[in-house]
Request: fold
Amino acid sequence: MTDLDPTLDARYLEIFPSFLRTLGDDAAALGAVVSSDAPEPVRRYVVAGLNYIFKSLDLIPDGIDDLGFLDDAFVLRVAAALAAEESPEAASNEPLARFVHDAAQVRAFLGDVYPRLEAYVKNLRTGAARGRTVDDVLGNAETQRTFVHEVSAWAKDYQVPSFARDVKTLIKLRAFLSAKLG
Reply:
């Protein structure tokens, strides 16, 4: 999909910068879910998504202009959508409800690449970042407190990156994710 619908281009050129503007707050809001009484499958996906922000080798390196944090924003939204599928009653609560809506925007943008991103996010439940797996975070109260604290610190320190509102940025984003996700 190298030729995007011009009508959709304008929408994504507004939506994706908003994802970047709220990424710190989004991470903090999801961090609160980790310590909540949300069902375990919800917390498992949320931890997997949040753990992704700490990965040193993510899909798009954070230093890449315009795109470096969009994969993080996408992963958080897809993880929340998967959590909502596991536990539909949790989907009506914020922040999951908003992220489920946002994940639909990501799905529409990525088209046939989205199932590969979704599979990638599902696999994050078994991976590790900073030497911690999802099981480590959910299975140990002290590890969970440390994790939530680190998410909170990351959220406070997050600096909103630039985003060039140019169709070429969208084409580059989709191509990058398509190539990285195989």
